[in-house]
What does this fold into?
Amino acid sequence: MKVQGAFTFRGPRALVWDLLQDPAVLAKAMPGTKRLERTAPDRFEGVMKVSLGPVTAAEFALAVTLRDQLAPERFAMDIDSKGALGFTRGTARVVLEEAENGETTMRYESELQIGGKIAAVGQRILDSAARMMTQKGLDALERELDARLAGGGAG
It folds into this structure.
């Protein structure tokens, strides 16, 4: 399954980069994340709870490894999650570009392989869930950025 797109944040590239490196912010940006912590300079581990169609509240151990980092321009990540109902493995690439008026455009693309019982819900449900989770994540990142720009710190 492929997910790709672009999103423009109302803030500077360096701050957007910092948000994308902060496990507390990333946990907010990944719907269903119960816990996410940095276990090494380039690695995060945690637990997510996901519901898709008839598969409700499936819990997954999640590991994200960052690579090819060039601050504040780009990074890639390897994603690996496993649970009783299946797995997700894949890669993602994020590029941050300075835009007009001090804004930042993030271009992203990911390729994921989903297997096990959770894959049985069907491609249409998986595609729809991926789009919904991506939009919720981007909205959460934007709210966090707005809070920091307003002087509210981490919110």
The mean pLDDT is 90.
